[in-house]
Design brief:
The protein is α/β, with parallel strands linked by helices. The protein contains 7 helices and 10 strands.
C-alpha cells in the first residue's frame, strides 16, 4: 500500500484502448506503479481477458483473475427490468471485487477497454465499493472507440457547430424520435435500423477497432446493411468477439 494513501486502498483505473498497441506512456507508468491487476473472466474462453493477460505479462505485473458474475441477458426486458438486471449484476461484481481486494493488499490496477469515461461501469462499481472500503481512485484515460471510429473513417464526428449525440443501440429509436440527427451508437448486440426511417442517412460503421479482425464500412444506410452484416461475421471469425459502433447522420 502506498504510504501516501494511509489506510485507503489505491486503485488505478487504466484505459487500454483496444490492446497493447494503444497503451499510452501514462498507462505504462500506471501499470508499473501497482502490485497487482485484477480482472474479471467471462466464461472459460474470454479473448478480452487474454489481451489483459498479455499486457500484464509484457509489463511484469501479476494478474489476478476473478470469475465474473452472471448477468441476465434475456431479450425483451422493459426499461425497469433491464435496469434491475444490470443493478443485480453490478452488486455481484462489487462483492467479488471486495473479496479480491481483501485477498491482495497493495495498490491495484484495473484495465478498462477503450476509455473509462465511455459506457463502462468500472467507476460506478468503485463508487459502490468505496462505501465498504476506503479507496483512493485514480483514472488514466485511454484511446476511445469513438476516437478510433473517427480516425479509421477519416472524419469529424459532427458538422461545423453541430452537436454529437452518443447513445446505445437500445435507445437509438428514442434518440431519433427526439430529433437527434447526428448520433454515435454503441453497445450493439446486432444492427437493427429497419423501420427507423434512416435509409437515406449516412452510416460510418466499424468493429473490433485495433484488433486483428478490424472491419469498417461506410455508405448510405439503405445500401450497406448486407455489407455490415458480412463484416460483423468476419470480425467474429477472426477475433472470436465483436465490439462495434457507428455514426448515423441525417442528410443535410
Amino acid at each position: 500500500m502506498s504510504a501516501a494513501t494511509g489506510t485507503r486502498r489505491r486503485v488505478r483505473v487504466i484505459g487500454i484502448g483496444m490492446g497493447p498497441q494503444h497503451l499510452t506512456p501514462e498507462a505504462v507508468a500506471a501499470l508499473a506503479s501497482v502490485e497487482v491487476v485484477i480482472a474479471f473472466e467471462k466464461g472459460t474462453h474470454d479473448p478480452l481477458l487474454a489481451v489483459r493477460r498479455a499486457i500484464c505479462a509484457e509489463h511484469g505485473v501479476p494478474l489476478v483473475v476473478v470469475p465474473d458474475a452472471e448477468r441476465d441477458r434475456r431479450e425483451g426486458h422493459d426499461e425497469a427490468s433491464y435496469a434491475a438486471a444490470v443493478a443485480a449484476w453490478h452488486a455481484a461484481r462489487v462483492e467479488r471485487w471486495h473479496r479480491a481486494l481483501a485477498a491482495h493488499p497493495g495498490d491495484v490496477g484495473l484495465l478498462v477497454w477503450g476509455d473509462p469515461g465511455f459506457y463502462d461501469s468500472t467507476l460506478r462499481l468503485l463508487d459502490a465499493l468505496g462505501e465498504r472500503v476506503p479507496l483512493e481512485v485514480e483514472v488514466v484515460p485511454g484511446i476511445s472507440s469513438l476516437s478510433l471510429l473517427a480516425a479509421r473513417h477519416r472524419l469529424v464526428l459532427h458538422d461545423v457547430a453541430r452537436p454529437l449525440h452518443v447513445t446505445t443501440a437500445r435507445r437509438l429509436p428514442e434518440a431519433i424520435a427526439q430529433g437527434q440527427r447526428n448520433v454515435v451508437v454503441m453497445l450493439n448486440r446486432r444492427i437493427e435500423l429497419a423501420g427507423l426511417g434512416v435509409d437515406d442517412w449516412s452510416i460510418w460503421w466499424a468493429a473490433n477497432l485495433g484488433a486483428a479482425g478490424e472491419q469498417a464500412v461506410a455508405g448510405r444506410v439503405g445500401d450497406v446493411g448486407g455489407a455490415i452484416d458480412a463484416a460483423r461475421e468476419r470480425a467474429a471469425e477472426v477475433d472470436g468477439w465483436v465490439m462495434d459502433l457507428y455514426l448515423l447522420r441525417a442528410p443535410a
